[in-house]
Amino acid sequence: MRGNAPGYGVYHTPIANLLNRLAQNRALDITGRPFRSLLSVLNTGRPIIVWTTIDYTARVPFITWQSPTGRVRATWQEHAVLLVGYNARDVYVNNPLTGTRQAIPRKTFENSYVAMGRQAVTVTSLAPHSAPKRA
What we know:
Elements: H1 12-22, E1 27-29, H2 35-43, E2 48-53, E3 63-67, E4 70-74, E5 78-86, E6 90-95, E7 100-105, H3 106-115, E8 120-123
Antiparallel strand pairs: 1-8, 2-5, 2-8, 3-4, 5-6, 6-7
């Protein structure tokens, strides 16, 4: 997981499925959307899990193979961060690898987002759902 040895990653669908189980079906898989859509989600106050590369570089080597469910395209440079804000120049991410908040140039981050297949997951609401009332 730290790039010292080969490891495994996970993409958007299993994360959205897990989030639905943990957050009362409030996951919203926004994979494939243009980068400006992510900024619109941030404007609502919701953070977004975004797949990028470990150093936010768009040019990384990919490998592909055929799985029972279809073609898989992957890189050893895969990374995911929590996108939490932006301004005219930068985006802000919480990076689980470093445990810090980082400013990344917007265009650099957008290019790595595109390179990793525009994968992103958020939630429909940050407000907790109330439990159904029992009769």
